[in-house]
Write a structure and sequence with these properties.
Strand content: 5-15%
Distance between the termini: 56 Å
Helix content: 40-55%
Largest sheet: 5 strands, mixed
Number of domains: 1
Order of helices and strands: EEHEEEHHHHHHHH
Shape: globular
């Protein structure tokens, strides 16, 4: 990667390198590729991993944006987003974050939902039970009232960006899902705004709660 890679994401852009992508919500989860067997070579895995890397240069047509957006990646690979609206900033943030760490994001979402055992096996069942005990089950409109007035709008844009990246990857001729999904044997599901709001994200911060109470007493 060069010192400054340039990647434009725009609703309508007519540049020399255009990768068509459509924002859609698939019905159900796309089938993951077959798990890598014991005979899979290291070179083969490396080739598959490199083939599935997201592009960091060029132009992408991404329905869902209101205006063209520019994303610059510096020499450390950190994306810098330049947009004309808050919606487009968070759409692009969701898109480029999914470019870099879609598998990590999908696992973390399942941590919050209590659905790790579905893909990683029964040893994660108790963890899933704990997550579901913590889950919020009230109306989402009430939940959003406890956040900033534009929180729902931000999360809508952010998750639209994630879904746009998933759609671009899985479209015919796309790079396909990251290698981790193939090895784990499952595929990402479409994101919803409430997927970002999980109690498990803050639960680890309560590990010392009992000791703090004892100290105060």
């Amino acid at each position: 990667m060069g010192a400054l890679d340039r990647f434009k994401v725009g609703a309508i852009l007519s540049l020399s390198v255009v990768v068509a992508a459509s924002l859609h919500t698939p019905r159900g989860t796309a089938a993951a590729q077959t798990n890598a067997g014991p005979g899979t070579s290291r070179d083969s895995l490396k080739t598959d991993a490199e083939r599935a890397l997201s592009p960091t240069r060029g132009t992408l047509k991404a329905p869902g944006l209101h205006h063209p957006v520019e994303v610059f990646r510096d020499s450390w690979g950190v994306p810098h987003i330049y947009a004309k609206s808050q919606h487009d900033v968070f759409f692009a943030q969701g898109f480029v974050t999914a470019q870099d760490r879609l598998f990590q994001m999908e696992l973390w979402k399942r941590v919050g939902q209590g659905r790790l055992a579905e893909v990683l096996g029964p040893k994660y069942l108790q963890r899933d039970i704990n997550a579901r005990l913590l889950a919020y089950r009230g109306p989402m409109d009430v939940e959003y009232k406890s956040y900033a007035p534009d929180a729902e709008e931000i999360l809508e844009a952010f998750t639209q960006g994630i879904n746009a990246e998933i759609a671009e990857r899985t479209a015919p001729g796309g790079p396909g899902l990251p290698l981790e999904f193939r090895l784990a044997g499952f595929a990402p599901e479409p994101w919803k705004p409430e997927d970002v709001l999980t109690r498990m994200a803050g639960f680890s911060m309560t590990n010392n709660s009992l000791s703090e109470l004892r100290t105060r007493n």
